[in-house]
Amino acid sequence: MVCTANVFAQFSLKSGDLLFQAGKSTTLSDAVAQVTSGADSVNYTHVGIVSIENDKIFVIEATTPKVRKVIIDTFLNDARKIDGKPIVAVGRLQSKYFDIIPQAIKNAEAYLGKPYDYVYSPDNDEYYCSELVYLAFRNKKGKPVFKAKKMTFCDDKGNMTAEWIRHFAKYNAPVPEGRKGTNPGDMSKSKEITIIYRYFN
Questions:
Q1: What are the residues whose beta carbons fall under 8 Å from the beta carbon of 95, sequence distance 6 or more?
Q2: Domain spans of the chain?
Q3: What is the pLDDT of residues 10-41, one digit of tens each?
Q4: Residue 191, burial from CB neighbour count under 10 angstroms (0-12, 13-18, 19+)
Q5: 70's torsion region: left (phi>0), alpha (psi -120 to 50) or beta?
Q6: CATH for the 13-198 domain, from 3.90.1720.10, 2.40.160.20, 3.10.20.30, 3.60.10.10
Q7: pTM here?
Q8: CA–CA separation, 148 vs 2, rounded Å?
C-alpha cells in the first residue's frame, strides 16, 4: 500500500493519474478561471502528473517558476480548500493507454527545471501545466493522447479580460488568441480520462 503523511492522500493513486487542481487565488490562476471551465463545472486552473516511486507519491507539474517534481502533500496544500479539503480531482486514463504511462512519466521528467511559460506559446522552450501533460502523453505512434484546441482568453461574453490584457502587456507578448493549445479545464473533460475521485467531496 502506498502511503503518504497527508490525511487527504489516502486514496489509492496510480502513476499516470492526472490531478486537476483549483489553485489558490493569484492574479494568474484567477485569470485562468475566468476563461475556462472543467469537469463538474469546477474551474480547474492547474494539472499535474502522479509518479509513484518506491512507495512515495510525487507530482510532476509545470508551475511558476519552473517544471518541478514535488511530494503530493505539497501539491494538495497548494490547492484552494472547501471545509479544509483541497479542491483536487483525480483523472485516470482509459485502460487502453495504461501501457504508455511509464514512457509518459519519463517524457515529463525530461522537462524538469524548464521555465514556466507565462505567454502560452508553443514555440519556446518554456511550458505551462497542461502543455506538459499534452507533450508527455503520446500513443504508440507518437501522437498526443490529448487534443489541442484553439485557445481563448475571453470571458463567456467574448470579451478579452482586463487581467489577460495586463498579463500579456507585462511580458510584451501578443495574446495567442485562437492558437492551438490546452488548458486544465478542457483536459479534465477529455474523453481520454475519467474523473474517479475528488478530495473535496
A1: none
A2: 13-198
A3: 689 999 999 999 987 666 666 666 666 677 77
A4: exposed
A5: beta
A6: 3.90.1720.10
A7: 0.91
A8: 33
Kindly list the distances between the CA atom of residue 56 and the CA atoms of 51, 64, 70, 159, 164, in Å, as whole numbers in the listed order: 8, 23, 11, 44, 38
In this prediction, the residues of the chain whose per-residue pLDDT falls under 50 are 1-7
Closest C-alpha among 47, 40, 39 to residue 16: 47
In Å, what is the CA distance from 9 to each residue of 12, 73, 75? Answer: 8, 8, 10
Cis peptide before 65 (omega within 30 of 0): yes
Burial 14-38 (b: 16+ CB within 10 A, else e): ebbbbbbbbbeeeebbebbbbbbbb
